[in-house]
Design goal:
single chain
Length: about 130
């Protein structure tokens, strides 16, 4: 596993742990809101790193690989939806929450991010290691 992929996988773990902590604390407490903000900052930094280091290498490799090109197109479309949903959630609950609505929305966000993380680690990051190796 390349150093970049190790970093990205570690960041996935940090984001997931922060979200689990938010789930435990709730956002009614200051600590819960602070943890939610930290999770948002971690996610944004992670996405920026992927945009800066991961995707350019994959896009270069995809110029001569139609299968990889199709995979990247699917991941890009999915990311637009995932990131939009995640940012809307963070904006909605950064300052306030209402218990049941937060729990429902949080469950949806957590499931969406967890699924995306699994896909990245099982498909996209392996492709990166194949083309960068």
């Amino acid at each position: 596993m390349s150093p970049l992929i190790k970093e990205l996988v570690a960041e996935h773990l940090e984001i997931t742990q922060a979200l689990n902590r938010v789930k435990q604390l709730g956002v009614q407490s200051q600590e819960g809101r602070d943890t939610l903000l930290a999770a948002k900052k971690g996610l944004l930094a992670h996405l920026e790193k992927e945009d800066r280091l991961l995707y350019p290498a994959l896009n270069r490799a995809a110029q001569n690989n139609d299968s990889l090109k199709r995979t990247l197109a699917v991941f890009a479309a999915d990311m637009d939806q995932v990131s939009g949903s995640a940012l809307a959630f963070f904006d909605k609950y950064a300052a306030d929450s209402s218990g049941i609505a937060f729990a429902k929305d949080f469950g949806g966000l957590f499931a969406t991010l967890s699924q995306r993380i699994r896909k990245e680690e099982n498909i996209l990051y392996k492709k990166y290691d194949e083309v960068s190796g």
